[in-house]
Structures are given as C-alpha cells and as structure tokens.
C-alpha cells in the first residue's frame, strides 16, 4: 500500500496472500453485516472449487480441521481405529483424529518431507482404517506407491491438501487421488479467508454423509466473523507497518490484539494440548466465502509466482551452506506449487532467525522444532512417541522455510538470499 511509507518487513506467515483488493473487500464486508452468514457465494465457491478439481462434490467448512472431521465421520472412523499420518504435521490435523477417539499413528518422512511409503507399510496393523497423505509445502507425496499400499491393504485414503491446492502429480490434481480430500483457507495457506476449508470427494456415499454432518452445524457467531474480517485490515494497515518500524512494538501490538480477542489465533492453546472445542465446529460463513472466492480467482497467479520465487531461491542458494530438500532437478510428471521453500541446516536455527529479524526478515512460520507443530504443541497429548519418527524430528530441528507468497518481490527474495549466503 503506497500511502504508507515504512520499511517493509518480510513475513512468511502473517497474512501473506493479502493484496490491496482483499483488504478493500474485507473493509466493504465489515459494513455489510447482512451478507455475513448466508448468501449465494458459499455455493458459488463450492461449485467453482469442485469444477477446478474435476470432482463431483465439495462442501465448505470454517476450517480444514472441521472439513477433516466431516470426512472422518463420513468414513465412520471410530474409537481405537488407527489413522496413519506423517510426522512433521500440524496439530489441527491430529486433533480431528483424536476428537473421534481414534488413534493417530505417526509415520516417518522421506526426502521431500512427505510420508515415507516404506515406514507406512511397516506401521499398518489390523486396526488401521485410513491413511492420510499431506503433500507438504505443496510437493506431492509418492502417490503411486501409496495407492498401491492403499489398494493392497483396503484402507481409506484421505488427502490433506492444506498446502497443495494446485499441486499436480502425473497430470492430476492432488486432492483427486483419495476417497476424500480436504483443503484449508487458513491465514497462511495457498489461498486465504483467514479461516476456512473445503472437503471434496467423488464418492457418492461419502458425499451424502459429509452433507449430513454439515447440516448439523451452525454458522459461526457475528463476532467470530468480525474477527476474521478485521484480520487482513489490521495486519496490513497496522501490524505489519509497526513491525517495519520496530519489531518488538509490532509483536506487542499483535499480542495485544490476540489478548483482547480482536484477532483470533490460528490454533488455540487448548488445541496445542489435544483438545478440540466443539464450539469451533461451524460452517463457512458467506463473508469468508466471498474473501476465499476473491483469492481463488487469483490462484493461478499466486502459484505461478510461488514457483518463480522457489526457482530463484534454488538457483541462488545452490552453493550456500544450506541443504535444499526440494531442489531435485526436473522430476518427471510432478508439478509442485511451493507454499514455502524449505532449507535445512546443521546450524542453530534460532540464532539464524534472530539475526534475520534484525534485518526485518521474519521467517518463523511455526513449522519447526517438533514433529507436530507449532513448537509449543504437547507431543504426549498428540500421542506422539519420542523418537518414533527420527527423520521428522531431525528435520523439524534443522528447517527454515522461506516465503514464496505473492507479496515477496524478486528484490525481497534477493535480500533473503543475500542474508543466507553470508551465513558460514
Ligand atoms: C498440514 C495441515 N493439515 C491441516 C491443517 C488444518 O487446516 P485449518 O487450519 O484450516 O484447520 C493445517 C493448517 O493448520 C495444516 O498445515
């Protein structure tokens, strides 16, 4: 926004996709409370979404985690059933499984930070009911191998596409391989309405059950909708500029907005302890469908930009002291979208992030330190056993994710690259 002259900070995760038109749209919606809960845009978004994926059914929710709840209920996943998922995942994915009193079984990761098919096969038991595949940071998992295992073991396949709207594997969109898939429109995802999600499937029976699940849900409250509408406005017009002037002040301001509940947190403290509040089970309200739709129209532009910035990091960091797990040459038939560009290091990542902050580069996106993120998640409450996924644990300790979103210009990417290249 030109009228605000301040040293622009670089963020990975604070309202990364928001452009001027998104802020203006949120401002307009704030003044139209009649449009907040119900309206035609919910259905329009669902129609366009399933058309994009080439699926028969999609249903919106107020988040990816609730869309996953709908899928688990549709699959009749129940007490003590095992759901296998990769370590190095988000606690909100795990909580949806725990909420059904099912058992999350953590599987280690491969070179691309996705589920390792070999470890997956080892961990399947007679109690296993479903495999959840993540496509981490928009890089597709090894689907051929995974589909073989799913068929052989007669399990449900769920695709967690929170990071991978637009990713393709062998010419097909991720999210179209499994019995069902879900997407997130969270604040730092591929497209964003601050909170929001979608469940999608081609399976008629599952679709009917997802529909039934949704019918039982209410709309979120007016205040909750207000909290989300004000988010892109406050982050862009007040919080980021303050971070640009003084990082500490910016952090205090953001903390104050969270404390006073003017802004909602992406993950509640309760959720970090494995508790999922029933009050959170809600539909996607119309106002957030409008925000999400506006972003959805820009999906191709966003993802093209992400790929370009990722390519730039790859070229510029090739000879650095950092290991680039997704610099894999031209892998055939894979089209990743790089929601982030991960780099790995044997150096202390905390120190690197502190140094970066001094240059107004804020790289802490919460995807670090623990095999279930964010880092202050209680692993025992996630039923994660220490050392059960060693590679995921090691990766979590050595990763820093670089931003690729639409607000990262080449100049800013260069600033990041210059910073990383001088680290010895
Ligand atoms: C891998 C993964 N799965 C699931 C989710 C849950 O999505 P949401 O935040 O929309 O509930 C997230 C994000 O929080 C995620 O990163």
**CATH-scheme architecture of the largest domain:** 3-Layer(aba) Sandwich
Alpha-carbon distance between the termini? 36 Å
Secondary-structure-derived class? alpha/beta
CATH superfamily of the largest domain: Type I PLP-dependent aspartate aminotransferase-like (Major domain)
CATH class of the largest domain: Alpha Beta
Mean pLDDT: 96
- Computed over alpha carbons, the radius of gyration is 20 Å
- Count of individual domains: 3
Biggest sheet strand line-up: 2-11-10-7-6-3-5
**Helicity range of the residues?**
40-55%
Number of helices: 15
Proportion of β residues? 5-15%
What best-fitting shape do the alpha-carbon axes yield?
Answer: globular
Quote the CATH topology of the largest domain: Aspartate Aminotransferase, domain 2
Ligands? pyridoxal-5'-phosphate
The largest β sheet comes out as: 7 strands, mixed
Number of strands: 16
Poorly predicted residue ranges: none
Defining key terms:
424 residues; alpha/beta; Aspartate Aminotransferase, domain 2; Aspartate Aminotransferase, domain 1; seven-stranded mixed β-sheet; three-stranded antiparallel β-sheet; 15 helices; 16 strands; binds pyridoxal-5'-phosphate
């Amino acid at each position: 926004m030109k009228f605000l002259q301040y040293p622009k900070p670089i963020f990975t995760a604070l309202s990364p996709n928001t452009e001027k038109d998104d802020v203006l749209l949120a401002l307009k919606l704030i003044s139209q409370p009649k449009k907040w809960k119900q309206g035609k845009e919910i259905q329009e978004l669902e129609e366009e979404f399933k058309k994009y994926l080439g699926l028969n059914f999609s249903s919106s929710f107020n988040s990816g985690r609730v869309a996953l709840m709908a899928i688990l209920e549709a699959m009749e996943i129940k007490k003590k059933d095992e759901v296998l998922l990769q370590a190095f995942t988000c606690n909100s994915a795990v909580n949806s499984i725990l909420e059904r009193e099912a058992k999350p079984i953590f599987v280690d990761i491969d070179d691309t930070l996705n589920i390792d098919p070999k470890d997956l096969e080892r961990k399947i038991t007679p109690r296993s009911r479903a495999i959840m595949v993540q496509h981490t940071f928009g890089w597709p998992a090894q689907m051929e191998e995974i589909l073989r295992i799913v068929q052989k073991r007669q399990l449900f396949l769920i695709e967690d596409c929170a990071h991978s709207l637009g990713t393709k594997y062998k010419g097909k969109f991720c999210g179209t391989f499994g019995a069902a898939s879900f997407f997130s429109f969270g604040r730092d995802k591929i497209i964003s309405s601050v909170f929001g999600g979608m469940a999608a499937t081609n399976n008629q029976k599952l679709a009917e059950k997802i529909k039934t699940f949704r019918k039982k849900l209410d709309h979120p409250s007016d205040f909750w909708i207000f909290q989300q509408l004000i988010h892109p406005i406050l982050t862009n017009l007040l919080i980021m500029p303050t971070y640009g002037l003084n990082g500490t002040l910016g952090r205090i301001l953001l903390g104050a907005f969270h404390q006073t509940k003017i802004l909602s947190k992406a993950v509640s403290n309760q959720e970090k302890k494995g508790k999922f509040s029933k009050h959170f089970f809600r539909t996607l309200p119309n106002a957030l469908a409008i925000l999400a739709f506006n972003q959805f129209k820009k999906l191709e532009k966003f993802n093209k930009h992400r790929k370009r910035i990722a390519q730039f990091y790859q070229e510029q960091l090739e000879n650095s002291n950092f290991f680039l797990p997704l610099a894999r040459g031209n892998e055939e038939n894979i089209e990743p979208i790089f929601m982030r560009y991960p780099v790995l290091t044997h150096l202390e990542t905390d120190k690197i992030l502190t140094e970066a902050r001094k240059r107004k580069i804020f790289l802490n996106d919460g995807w670090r330190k623990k095999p279930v993120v964010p880092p202050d998640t209680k692993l025992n409450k996630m039923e994660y056993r220490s050392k059960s996924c060693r590679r995921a644990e090691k990766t979590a300790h050595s990763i820093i994710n670089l931003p690729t979103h639409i607000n990262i210009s080449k100049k800013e990417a260069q600033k990041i690259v210059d910073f990383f290249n001088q680290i010895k």
